[in-house]
Design brief:
The chain is α+β, with helices and mostly antiparallel strands and 205 residues long. Helix content is 26%, strand content 29%. One of its GO terms (cellular component) is nucleus.
Length: 205
């Protein structure tokens, strides 16, 4: 994971790093996704995203990250959910963004030679299975467009037995706090309701 100069990590009340990412789709059919080359393995492609800055909300961070990493301008369509990686101790709020403009040059293309490439959903799943298995869950949920319960096991990443859960709420009020409308719930009934926590944090800061 690339650390940006002078960046400050932010954490939720459970000690998880707060992140945001976007599945950048070409159009409303959502059959093609824009991925970016990995900073650590340039021949592999990943979903653009990164950490929230202090006093920055997840949607703002997601838009900033795709501009920096992919040179993308677009419109957030919806929140897909909050994905938790227990081993790496971070929670990533993932949005679906419809691409409106692709810049010829952008921050990471100039600073580290980052590339971008369109993938079909099937090809994106195949690529991410190698480069970033945890991110397959984002694309799979987009492809399924289902309201099924979603504690999602993933393949180990970099030798780690990573597990990932999608945490969201069945309550309409909490879903509205991140733009989610699917009413997805975690299979773990004792787990923390992350969306409620984020909503509570926003009202107390």
């Amino acid at each position: 994971m690339k650390e940006k100069p002078n960046s400050t990590r932010t954490y939720d009340k459970d000690g998880f790093r707060r992140r945001a990412a976007c599945l950048c789709v070409r159009d409303g059919f959502e059959t093609e996704i824009l991925l970016v080359s990995s900073s650590s393995t340039p021949d592999r492609f990943i979903v653009p995203g990164g950490g929230l800055e202090p006093d920055e909300d997840a949607e703002t961070a997601a838009i900033r990250e795709v501009m920096e990493e992919a040179g993308v301008k677009g419109k957030i369509d919806r929140c897909l959910g909050i994905f938790e990686n227990v081993e790496r101790r971070h929670r990533t709020q993932v949005f679906v963004l419809q691409v409106r403009e692709l810049l010829e040059e952008w921050d990471d293309s100039k600073s580290i030679g980052r590339k971008r490439k369109w993938f079909t959903v099937a090809d994106a799943l195949e690529e991410l299975a190698v480069s970033k298995p945890v991110q397959c869950n984002y694309v799979q949920l987009l492809a399924n467009k289902t309201d099924s319960a979603c504690c999602l096991p993933v393949a180990p990443e970099s030798g780690e037995g990573a597990t990932l859960s999608l945490r969201s709420s069945s309550g309409s009020g909490a879903n509205a706090s991140c733009g989610c409308t699917s009413g997805q719930t975690s299979n773990n009934n004792t787990s923390t309701n992350v969306l409620d926590d984020l909503a509570a944090e926003s009202t107390t800061t």
